[in-house]
Amino acid sequence: MVSIKSSREIELMRDAGKILGTAHNEIRDYIKPGISTYEIDKFAEKVVSRLGGKCSFYHLYDFPGNFCISVNDEVIHGIPSKNKIIKDGDIIKVDGGVEYKGYNSDAARTHIVGSVSNDIKDLVERTEKAFFEAIKVCIDGNHVNDIGSTIEDYIDKFGYGIVEDYVGHGIGTKVHEDPEIPNFRSTKKGIKLRNGMTLAIEPMINLGSYEVYVDKDEWTVKTEDGLPSAHYENTILITDNGPEILSLV
Ligand code: MF3
Ligand code: CO
Question: What is the crossing angle of helices 144-156 and 118-136, to 10°?
């Protein structure tokens, strides 16, 4: 279960978040047509180690890469590959975990490469917006279900599919801690949110159906209908002054 962090732990969570947020900004500027997702991954690893962090997905879960890099209909957990070349019109989901002095951050971005349809632009923007709506209810005394309910209410009107098989989570000395944080309304209200809790909130939103499957590479999660998907995630801290986003620089 996610713990209430002490002020010393909060400092370390901030450091872990800052490394990842900084890395994401550098990766955003690095992405361009013609490079492979493998090159993006190598670049990500270089930046994270330069900043003093460790890529936790590789070190903790034996994920075959440093960051998960998922293109278009790949939702999450895409394996970086020399054969996957970025082209104009793609959307690239970059999802990373950083460990720093025993504390973790987890954050994902969806980058648009060149020109995409308005449908895709809207999907990416609204997925980000869903995160920012959700953190407004991350307040001491609210419950986990307030987060998913807020995301569902915001997303439903666009007719998108909300991924149900993968969820947000508590985070701290481990990348994944209880509680699970669904991006949709549940029948149970879940645990009470408290100041000092650190959470990874991560809407995964499909342009079409919510249904996904795991590819034969045993990692990559893809949309069943082949339509694109967007992902946006940050590690946040609940405080009396509202949520603090730790992994956004
Ligand atoms: N990115 C996932 C999350 O946000 C975790 C990926 S773990 C890995 O929770 F092993 F797949 F890399
Ligand atoms: Co996460």
Answer: 150
